[in-house]
């Protein structure tokens, strides 16, 4: 779908094609000198520049950085796969819970700090607005605060104790290191700003697909608060979920599989997603373009076969990373339509088996025929949109807060109703209501969001990390969970760049 980014992000004039070691610097546009007056056009250009970072979810900084894959590799849903253990060795280390300061997916660090810098620049522009209507200014400022929180929340989840800044930094471009708890408070401040006062619409019409909404800000706040296990704010988050539900702006679509194809982009249950286009990315251009590499990355190598679970024949081959673990089909009930929509299975001999092959592959973002007409560098330029927040998560958040954390129901919404809504769509004529217990809600989240990068973070916040310790020699996966592994080691290259009062301290355990 040629939507928001095609029109809006192309107006961003600065920082779209390059980024280097000075990514902590906020670059003003040509029409707004640093700290100077900002017209509506200058503000929009800065906000668009901040949005563009969303398009780097798969390849940027000359590395493969899909946030979905980077999140799921430490879970109990997938293996690393690829050519062998040494193929993208940093990802294998990530999956084995033994990343080191010298070998880890540090591209994420550069990408999301670039996002922080650009969001700062947009916020600064808003503060220096000239001849801009209050409504426009409110919306653009709220979008920028959301984007800053979105990028920083990933840095916070992966690394915890990180440098943070809100102003343009002078040479040598260093910032103080905050604790994870301090970063959490900064996230809440930005998200409350975006949510309060109706600066953002609850939803958008087709012309604005891809822009931040109030619902998106509420969903990000829910993820942040629930990951922090901040019980003092659980009531606020439940109220937000109920507001989204009662708004009528979103609903579950009838066919779960329809979410993941082109026609399902920006569907009725899509609260926020990234609009990829099949163009612009190249191996030698590390910070530009609109396509995604994720479909090629996770699809079986040299594929020539029909998916045995869905019967679909339009899938095409890729690199064979992220094979689904063999026990995953067994977590689904008979008749659950989410299995075939989430997992692909191909007959032996129809693809080239690679490292940790299970015969099962991630389906939601799988490479498909007709989803890539890029004239060059095809593997980097699939058009599959990345779904970030879906209405199903709203429902399951509410169910969890009420049933698992004891938050008093709001507005007549019950945990049982929320759980039943999700299951009715998934099971259709096979639907049977099951009690809204802790065990059932946790399992439903795993089924609903398989392959969407949520499982590991759920296990950590629930304290269910025992399942991450394993010894599976037949799949070359032997790993041990320790509490300090909640955070990755800070890249040694970043520590080496800092000095004096800004010297970065390594996370404990590394």
Q: What are the SSEs and their pairings?
A:
Blueprint: H1 4-8, H2 40-52, E1 59-60, E2 63-64, H3 67-72, H4 89-95, H5 107-127, H6 134-159, H7 180-195, H8 214-228, H9 234-247, E3 270-274, H10 294-298, H11 338-342, E4 343-345, E5 360-362, E6 386-390, H12 391-403, H13 415-427, H14 438-448, H15 455-462, E7 470-472, E8 477-479, H16 492-497
Helix pairs in contact: 2-5, 2-6, 5-6, 6-7, 7-8, 8-9, 9-12, 12-13, 12-14
Protein name: Starch-binding associating with outer membrane
Pfam families: SusD-like_3 (PF14322), SusD_RagB (PF07980)
Domain RagB/SusD: 345-510
Which keywords apply here?
510 residues; mainly alpha; two-stranded antiparallel sheet; 36% helix; globular; disordered N terminus; membrane
